[in-house]
Write a structure and sequence with these properties.
Blueprint (H helix, E strand, L loop, with lengths): L1 H5 L2 E2 L5 E4 L4 E6 L2 E6 L5 E5 L2 E5 L5 H22 L2 E8 L4 E5 L3 E5 L6 E4 L5 E5 L7 E6 L2 H14 L9 E4 L15
Antiparallel strand pairs: 1-6, 2-3, 3-4, 5-6, 7-12, 7-13, 8-9, 9-10, 11-12
Length: about 180
């Protein structure tokens, strides 16, 4: 990860980055504000609207943290300028998704009851249901880690099975299919 850590991070004009004495990085942009605490061994400096992350030694731990924090800060900068969007597809007969209010998602996934999932207020969710196509749940927000965590939680509710391909998957994801039983002769 040290190769990633060595890369300088150019900051867009709209983004303001501040670093506390306690190594708390605050990234403020047009879409919102994000915070990340950084290990005290790693130092961060801003020169000419370019952010540089440096490590004190060549220890394995410092190399790992170097790349980690550079990647996290880069994700924060992209999040407050452009934002992140993930789309999940519900594949299966009778699978449906509806939105209740602004933060509750109701999923019908073939269980005996519907599942109602409460989502964090930082995430904007929308559902698309077109006739003849699978329902799509769209997650949008500025925090990449939070969107990934919510998407993983939704996928775990009905994992894609390899025989028929039913379940919750990302839009465009390729699922390895297994051959089923063959007829005996």
């Amino acid at each position: 990860m040290s190769r990633i850590g060595k890369l300088p991070l150019p900051l867009p004009d709209k983004v303001e980055v501040t670093i506390d004495k306690s190594n708390l990085v605050t990234v403020k942009g047009p879409k919102g504000t994000l915070f990340q605490s950084v290990d005290p061994d790693i130092s961060i400096s801003i020169e000419n609207s370019v952010l540089v992350v440096t490590r004190p030694t060549e220890q394995k731990r410092h190399k790992a943290l170097h790349g980690l924090y550079r990647a996290l800060i880069a994700n924060m900068v992209k999040g407050v300028t452009e934002g992140y969007k993930l789309q999940l597809e519900l594949v299966g007969v009778g699978y449906k998704s509806t939105l209740q209010g602004t933060s509750n998602l109701e999923l019908s996934l073939g269980y005996s009851h519907n599942l109602i999932i409460g989502l964090p207020p930082e995430i904007t969710v929308s559902t698309i249901t077109e006739k003849g196509k699978n329902p799509i749940v769209s997650l949008e927000g500025i925090d990449k880690a939070l969107i990934g965590q919510v998407a993983a939680k939704l996928r775990s509710l009905r994992q894609v099975e390899p025989y028929k391909g039913k379940g919750i998957r990302f839009v465009g994801e390729q699922v390895r299919r297994k051959a089923g039983k063959t007829a005996s002769k």
